[in-house]
Design a protein that fits this description.
The structure holds two protein chains of two kinds. By secondary structure, chain A is mainly β. Chain A has strands at 3-6, 11-14, 19-21, 23-26, 32-38, 44-50, 56-59, 62-65, 75-77, 86-93, 103-104, 108-113. Classes of the chains: A mainly beta, B mainly beta.
Amino acid sequence: GDSVTQMEGPVTLSEEAFLTINCTYTATGYPSLFWYVQYPGEGLQLLLKATKADDKGSNKGFEATYRKETTSFHLEKGSVQVSDSAVYFCALSDPGGSARQLTFGSGTQLTVLP
Amino acid sequence: GAVVSQHPSRVICKSGTSVKIECRSLDFQATTMFWYRQFPKKSLMLMATSNEGSKATYEQGVEKDKFLINHASLTLSTLTVTSAHPEDSSFYICSARDWLAGGPYNEQFFGPGTRLTVL
């Protein structure tokens, strides 16, 4: 079945540091890939997405590129801020199964210190 | 973006009682809502897909008689945990799709979650 493996946290960085959160996936078809963010006390929010190979999703300074050859969708940001502290989830939606459903990774807690 | 609310945000109950959790789409209509369960430091596990006006579709291993789902309107789905036991303690999260947005990949909007503790 489909699965998503992401870097275990917690990750603690200083403000303005470079961020990478690794995410790899296993899927039967050609999935769409997502990064969701969950701020403390709030629901999950879509951060960015990519629907086909070599697509780059970007939002709020975050980027991730859909790499079919390595089945990866790593999240990066060049300079993190304290306000980026949250839990980040990598997820996929596989059109080979049900396009409506999301399969999530385990989440990575990010703490950015001033 | 669209807003999904959940109520209550936190509930503590005694073993053997039933608990109802509400999920509402506040500013859009949702023909499909999803219920997830999240264990500490674990990913979100899809429990069931709730379709307005029809029976929910449960994932393998989820007891439909234990977790009753009702999706009576385009803005409300409820999850009732029946005869709750301590092992049902968890964080329950719902999400909703805006059916007007169209397409198979349209975004799911997530509620803030409900923390259930069964004593």
